[in-house]
Amino acid sequence: MSGGTNPLGGPDPVDLHISARLLELRKASGLSQKALARAVGITFQQVQKYEHARNRVSASMLYGLARALGVPLWAFFEGLPQTVPPGSSGVEIATLQKGK
Question: How many other C-beta atoms can be found within 10 angstroms of the C-beta atom of residue 81?
């Protein structure tokens, strides 16, 4: 995977959250991966990689995705705990989010 990792290996918990939110927001908007990709000038395979946290989403791409989806930038961070404990895994973050 390109991008940040947590100390235990694997994607950073914040990147996992953003990937999951991208998938949710895209589905809620009714856009296909192909349509979203076209709107931001990338391939649908790249959208897949973003949605499955295989590739990290840059700030500029996140901005473009928010515009294409018609959501505010902060929508990608909605539900993320205020603090992410160092060394957390994506599983721990998912547990924290479910326990809101």
Answer: 16
